[in-house]
Backbone:
DNA sequence: TAATTTTTATAAAAATTAATAAAAACCCCC
DNA sequence: GGGGGTTTTTATTAATTTTTATAAAAATTA
């Protein structure tokens, strides 16, 4: 097995150094970023197996970095923070953080929590892809594959498909879809949806008039399978 | 969706009470055990969606209970303990605990960690089917097969058939069916039902005027199979 | 049992909602 | 400022749901 790769996003050099030495001693490969922007870029360029994220970053609020990462990065993110407020912890966990440790932390415990997070993630190995039958969404590259071909989707088409894919099985109302993709003032432009759903179906469905992915819920909205 | 079920294994009555009230307020179903043996037995009898395990139990060492549970129980186990020693934490996590909190703990944080653990655990969607004689409902694909052909059902037709199939054998009143499919304000639109039952029968029954699947219960409702 | 009332089945219409093509407007990016 | 691609608008057709009408079946009553 290859070394698991861990990305550290933290602006304090001494913390980065401590973590790096510790992790490398335990046979992890370490990549470092000193601010949020760099961290997101590095994660996108080459998704690591786990991210350690400090909430107190110089450029972007750590919770925002977490949200941004969580929109496509599916491996665990462990939060390190000096903040011990319950709200900070709850918000981070609800935004999809795998764990939350307050500084100062104990190395052994952090390592155990890293092992735990990586172990648990192995079962639900989603990586940065969502797969549905013949369809594969690469969240990092924003590319969609159907069988062996890359589909050419416009930005709106991709956003809509991603929204469907993230809510597999649920009925999504016209209102919800329009608000999410176009914004609150477009909630009555149902026709936009019809046009883009038709465009998507043309590209992803074997037979667009018997759709298998995007199902119409007449009078309500759509459902993705 | 059904309530998630949580098993609390803790010998302190006041902790159990506090947890139970808190969890039930957040719409979890709670089951309690006061020692390790009882906890293992309850988990085996009816596996919950998550276990909260206190390490300081009167009969068996909590770490042993964890090991025993982990040999077959696959949903998350969160450890609660007065012990704050790094070794205890590392051992528990390496034995497969999803998380470790020390008492006294903060309720909001515990709830967030429970949500996080449950969220990460739910990944495996099975392809469930319901089969009735010649009829097969594929719940994931929302497709209905009669012998070897896919039936073309409208969304409402499918929803109605699914509702029947999920309540095989029971008499379903008009009121109930209308409320489930159309909503509470439609409970008197009995005629809708008649139209859609007729449409379904036309598609699934060999002989629609001698129905074998959807049986009329005059004055009351219908019964499936 | 016959007559009456209630309930059910079905077809078909009207109304609503959805799908699709194609034209017009918009937006970048060079 | 032109051109390729994308989004928005418009128009038309198709599908689904709701409403109406009517005949048949079942239940009730005397």
Residues:
């Amino acid at each position: 097995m290859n070394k698991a790769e861990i990305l550290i996003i933290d602006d304090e050099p001494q913390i980065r150094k401590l973590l790096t030495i510790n992790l490398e001693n335990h046979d992890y490969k370490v990549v470092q970023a000193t601010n949020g922007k760099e961290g997101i870029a590095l994660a996108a360029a080459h998704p690591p197996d786990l991210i350690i994220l400090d909430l107190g970053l110089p450029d972007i609020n750590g919770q925002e970095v977490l949200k941004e990462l969580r929109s496509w990065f599916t491996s665990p993110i462990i939060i390190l923070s000096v903040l011990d407020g319950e709200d900070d912890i709850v918000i981070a966990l609800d935004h999809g953080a795998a764990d939350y440790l307050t500084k100062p932390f104990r190395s052994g415990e952090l390592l155990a929590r890293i092992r735990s997070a990586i172990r648990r993630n192995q079962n639900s190995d989603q990586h940065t892809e969502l797969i549905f039958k013949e369809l594969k969404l690469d969240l990092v590259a924003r590319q969609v594959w159907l069988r062996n071909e890359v589909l050419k989707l416009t930005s709106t088409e991709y956003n809509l498909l991603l929204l469907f894919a993230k809510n597999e099985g649920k009925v999504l109302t016209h209102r919800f879809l329009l608000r999410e993709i176009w914004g609150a003032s477009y909630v009555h432009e149902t026709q936009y949806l019809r046009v883009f759903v038709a465009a998507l179906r043309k590209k992803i469905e074997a037979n667009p008039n018997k759709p298998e992915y995007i199902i119409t819920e007449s009078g309500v909205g759509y459902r993705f399978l």
